[in-house]
Write a structure and sequence with these properties.
about 325 residues, four-stranded mixed beta sheet, 4 strands
Length: about 325
């Protein structure tokens, strides 16, 4: 497979951690945020593990969730182990109990998760096939290279029909960036959409995770350029500022909305792009977000004219262009 293709795969380490998540408070907290129908496999996994809620592996995860550990950290942790048997391939992080991987493997064995996954193989295969239908031939590398130069990282996509059911996760391990994503939530109690019935959902999830991790790494390479512009005020509200406390986080959050909007317009349609940006505007409560698409269009036009080659050269203009875009889009 070419390094520029997205590799779609089902990773048993991801499936194991998602199964453990199903036995914690996480599924109920998801429903509190927004009631929605879940995949039959996710519901079935909760039933399979209902008798194991006191198992140390599940209790450890619940304790870490209660302490505020983010999902990205959990999945980065589990993917640092080999499969099968979960032998460490690197030094586990200090925030995790040293024996947790052994607890996880024990749960996998005593709960018979291998047999459960075998019974559910059709659903997992369908998830992989429908995701491949959408991602075949899509070149996220070429799109992102317009902003940060050559991208050598390998991209993978793990369709997840277990938990979380409302959140995608990005994991960076060595030279690979992995997106773990559920299918799109449907209305009310209806089951989620198949991956290939909503390409915009798959593109958004994948590009957001690949781009977020790459842009954060890119900005970290140029602290001097960032320092020159980080003191310039951005047209954001207090809610957004609190959610993204640093300039780099704010920039990446704004950038990814604009980037996904541009990508969806080019890959699908202007209607899909506008629907996505409108949704993000409502979620973030930030009226400037529609202007981000025009800001990145302006950047790409300047790049085509030879005014700059990469984002670091454009950064001094970013805040001013965004304020102008906000004014135009709110007229």
């Amino acid at each position: 497979m070419s390094n520029r293709n997205v590799e779609v795969r089902i990773d048993d380490r991801v499936r194991l951690l998602s199964a453990v998540l199903a036995a914690t408070c996480w599924p109920d907290e998801e429903q509190k945020r927004k009631p929605h129908g879940t995949h039959a496999h996710a519901r079935g996994t909760r039933r399979v593990l209902a008798g194991f809620v006191e198992h140390p592996a599940i209790q450890t995860m619940q304790l870490l969730i209660d302490k505020g550990a983010p999902l990205e950290a959990f999945y980065t942790y589990i993917m640092g182990f080999s499969w099968p048997r979960l032998e460490p391939t690197a030094q586990p992080p200090p925030w995790v109990p040293s024996s947790w991987h052994k607890q996880l493997w024990h749960l996998y064995e005593v709960a018979g998760l291998d047999k459960w996954w075998e019974e559910e193989q059709y659903d997992w295969s369908e998830a992989a096939t429908t995701a491949e239908n959408v991602l075949q031939g899509v070149d996220f590398h070429q799109f992102l290279e317009q902003f940060i130069g050559p991208v050598t990282q390998h991209f993978s996509f793990n369709p997840n029909i277990s938990y979380p059911t409302d959140t995608e996760i990005g994991v960076r391990l060595g030279n690979e960036i992995c997106c773990i994503a559920p299918p799109r939530i449907a209305w009310g109690d209806n089951p989620p959409w198949p991956f290939d019935e909503d390409p915009a959902h798959v593109y958004r999830a994948a590009l957001t995770q690949y781009g977020r991790l790459l842009i954060l790494g890119y900005l970290a390479q140029y602290p001097d350029a960032v320092a020159k512009v980080s003191s310039q005020p951005l047209p954001i509200n207090e809610q957004f500022a609190a959610k993204y406390p640093t300039f780099n986080e704010r920039f990446v959050a704004l950038f990814m909305v604009g980037a996904v909007g541009v990508f969806l317009e080019e890959a699908l349609s202007e209607r899909e792009a506008k629907a996505y940006v409108l949704m993000q505007t409502k979620v973030e409560g930030l009226k400037v977000l529609p202007g981000m698409v025009s800001v990145l269009r302006r950047y790409l036009e300047g790049r085509a004219d030879g005014r700059w080659d990469e984002l670091r050269e454009y950064l001094p203009h970013f805040s001013n262009h965004l304020r102008v875009a906000k004014t135009i889009t709110t007229l």
